[in-house]
Design goal:
Layout: H1 2-23, E1 24-27, E2 31-37, E3 40-45, E4 49-52, E5 58-64, E6 68-71, E7 75-78, E8 84-95, H2 98-105, H3 109-129, H4 133-138, H5 142-152, E9 161-172, H6 178-246, H7 248-266, H8 281-287
Antiparallel strand pairs: 1-4, 2-3, 2-5, 6-8, 7-8, 8-9
Length: 289
């Protein structure tokens, strides 16, 4: 009888352990716990810790509660000028509404990635199809990626998904026309550079012409001013000379000085001998006549 009671207690203890284990739910920091009852979601546990469910009636399903990386497959996109480019990118995303995620995507990360692939490809195609190839190449950084994210908008909210980041790893040309496009772009940049050089040369010539004109005007005005000053100086000289000759007490002295000046001018060459006739004005001055 005692052995039978021990067996019963052991069976009850094992049953309690089994029931307790099946009713306990452990939720980690990086996961959600979805409690299902008869296949339908009864409630969602979002906080880490230990909780309980009805044993044998309710089941638990786990979903990731962390940032997930998805590397998208390289895809062909066509620009507004009908040029094909290859876009290789990746995204960072997370589940923000586990209930909506489970209802719309059957709690499958694989299904979610497939849906993300479709949404992001459509957005990339729409943005690049309205942009020329040159603009795509020049804006292959954050600006283009931001435009694609903006184009997606709130599309992913219906799946309980948040797009954290979209990054373009490579946005390149197909191998068969890459060299031709690069040569065309180099030629275009060369034409632009030649235009800038021509405009710069024209502007420089205009500046030189304007400067030469200003210099000519300044020189002309300076020469005019110098001529005026010379004329005024000569007039002043003639006035002083006239006043000097007008004074009878000084007439004889100035006549003597001017005679010497005239004699000096006439003495040219190596021969310094001058023969004056007695009636010469200069000889009269020397002889005191």
């Amino acid at each position: 009888m005692k052995v039978f009671k021990k067996v019963i207690w052991i069976v009850l203890l094992l049953a309690l352990l089994i029931v307790g284990g099946s009713s306990m739910v452990v939720t980690n920091e990086n996961e959600y716990s979805l409690i299902r009852q008869f296949g339908r979601i009864d409630h969602v546990i979002t906080e880490a810790g230990i909780s309980f469910k009805l044993p044998f009636v309710q089941s638990v399903e786990k979903l990731p509660n962390q940032t997930l990386l998805y590397d998208l497959s390289p895809s062909d996109v066509i620009t507004s000028d009908k040029k094909t480019m290859i876009c290789d990118s990746y995204i960072l995303w997370r589940i923000t509404d586990p209930l909506k995620f489970a209802q719309t995507l059957n709690s499958s990360v694989t299904v979610a990635e497939s849906r993300l692939d479709t949404v992001i490809y459509n957005s990339t195609k729409n943005v690049i199809s309205s942009t020329s190839q040159d603009e795509v190449i020049s804006g292959r950084g954050g600006a283009l990626a931001q435009s694609i994210v903006t184009n997606i908008g709130s599309t992913l909210d219906q799946y309980g998904i948040e797009l954290l980041s979209y990054e373009i790893k490579q946005l390149d040309l197909p191998g068969d026309n890459k060299n031709a496009v690069y040569e065309r772009m180099i030629s275009e940049r060369g034409n632009i550079a030649a235009t800038y050089i021509a405009e710069g040369s024209s502007e420089a010539q205009m500046i030189r012409n304007s400067t030469d004109k200003e210099v000519t005007v300044l020189l002309s005005e300076a020469e005019k001013e110098a001529a005026i000053l010379i004329a005024e100086g000569e007039a002043e000289y003639m006035r002083i000379l006239s006043e000097a000759y007008a004074d009878e007490s000084k007439q004889e002295f100035y006549s003597f000085v001017r005679s010497l000046d005239a004699l000096k001018i006439s003495m040219t060459g190596n021969n310094k001998t001058i023969i004056l006739s007695p009636d010469s004005p200069i000889a009269k001055i020397f002889y005191g006549q």
